[in-house]
Amino acid sequence: KQEVTQIPAALSVPEGENLVLNCSFTDSAIYNLQWFRQDPGKGLTSLLLIQSSQREQTSGRLNASLDKSSGRSTLYIAASQPGDSATYLCAVSYKSGGYQKVTFGTGTKLQVIP
Amino acid sequence: EAQVTQNPRYLITVTGKKLTVTCSQNMNHEYMSWYRQDPGLGLRQIYYSMNVEVTDKGDVPEGYKVSRKEKRNFPLILESPSPNQTSLYFCASSSRGWDTQYFGPGTRLTVL
Asked: Can you tell me whether residue B112 is helix, strand or coil?
């Protein structure tokens, strides 16, 4: 069974700092990995999607990498801002019973201090 | 505006009273799914639908039913709700497979 772990569970950094969030998964036979942002009381917003054949994806100040062989992904946030404060979740999709299932990590709660 | 809508947003009910949470998307997406989010457990997939012809169980399907009669709608049905189904529920959709996901705003359900 696929398990997804995110460490740390919470992170507090001063504004302007570059930071890395980690995501690890147990089964490397994935279709893709997706990073999400969740604001309190809100739904999830997709940030980056990395297909299994890709090594990284970039969007603005965000860069996500994928190392399938080691079962790891990182989300790099450059020059953090208070508006980046949110919970960040990663999720992997994988083949199960002929179809496609997904498992989420429990998230990293980020606080960027002005 | 492209969006996923869920109704109701908040619901308090009693044990055993059947309820339906609706989900609708206006993006002509093939893939739709339901999740529940609980503290310490994260999001867990309840059911998903690859298209109107294919629906399958996720990791926590017990006590739930779904229906995909039209592409745009994917209601979640609780035939006999129990207190352990108190949770925050999200519907999501994507164009095909588990691609870039678009989430609804969530439905907070309390079963007394």
From this structure: coil
A89 contact B CB<8A: yes
Structure token pair of residue B58: 């996720």
First to last CA, chain A: 41
Residue of B nearest to A89 (CA): B42
Tokens of B91: 């519907």
pLDDT tens track for B12-50: 999 999 999 999 999 999 999 999 999 888 899 999 999
Per the CB < 8 A criterion, the answer to whether B93 and B27 are in contact is yes
Chain centroid, CA A106 distance in Å: 10
The per-residue pLDDT for B2 is 84
3-state SS, residue B49: strand
Band (A96; pLDDT cuts 50, 70, 90):
confident
Q: Which of A69, A85, A86 has the alpha carbon at shortest distance from A24?
A: A69
Q: Which residue of B has its CA nearest to A6?
A: B42
Helices (H), chain A: none
